[in-house]
Amino acid sequence: xxxxxxxxxxxxxxxxxxxxxxxxxxxxxxxxxxxxxxxxxxxxxxxxxxxxxxxxxxxxxxxxxxxxxxxxxxxxxxx
Length: 79
Fold this sequence. Notes:
Blueprint: H1 2-22, H2 26-37, E1 40-49, E2 52-60, E3 66-72
């Protein structure tokens, strides 16, 4: 029975840690936006958008336009 409890605790702990493993880093978000826009990243900040954590990436495009691109910090998708 003790082994069963240890297995359950281990499974629960592993499940609790999964979202942390799925987090998108600041560098990953910056690289993704740089690749998508072809521009130069000016800044990257963690922000809240509709209750979700997002990376707010400010970039200057090759045409000289400054844009702000949001990247979901958990999925790397653009909200």
